[in-house]
């Protein structure tokens, strides 16, 4: 009987240890902050080339750190994440990608007039999206 209780205890402990909700929530909060700061760098300079350059430098300086933090999301298996955490993660990722991509719409007028500006903005958006998909 005692042996069965111990086995049950360790099984419960192992199952509880597999849940990654807290890690995922922490990673998502960090991604949200990173995305907000990236967008603010572009917007703070009214979408100027300097703002895009500052955002690109910021992105490059934080890229390795964010890849490490996002590895939690990519490494989590379905059984390790609650349905609520999956839903929150999906909504947050969608919002972040949409917010960064919407910079292209926001500054479309300038992009149409300046091919260099357009390519820098496209690179920033593409780099951000590849961070999430690589």
Key features?
134 residues; mainly alpha
Q: What's the layout of helices and strands?
A:
Layout: H1 2-18, H2 21-44, H3 49-75, H4 83-106, H5 108-113, H6 115-133
Helix pairs in contact: 2-3, 2-4, 3-6, 4-6
| Order of H and E elements | HHHHHH
Alpha carbon gap, first and last residue: 49 Å
User: What is the approximate shape?
Assistant: elongated
- The total beta strand count reads 0
The low-confidence parts are 4-17
Q: Can you give the mean pLDDT? A: 85
Oligomer: single chain
The rounded Rg comes to 20 Å
User: Total helix count?
Assistant: 6
**Helical content band:** over 70%
Structural class of the helix and strand makeup?
mainly alpha
Main beta-sheet strand count, sense and barrel state? none
How many individual domains?
Answer: 1
Strand composition percent: under 5%
Written description of the protein model:
The chain has 134 residues and is mainly α. The protein has one domain. It is built from six helices and no strands. Mean pLDDT is 85; it is low at 4-17.
Concise structural overview:
The protein is mainly α and 134 residues long. Helix content is 87%, strand content 0%. It is elongated.
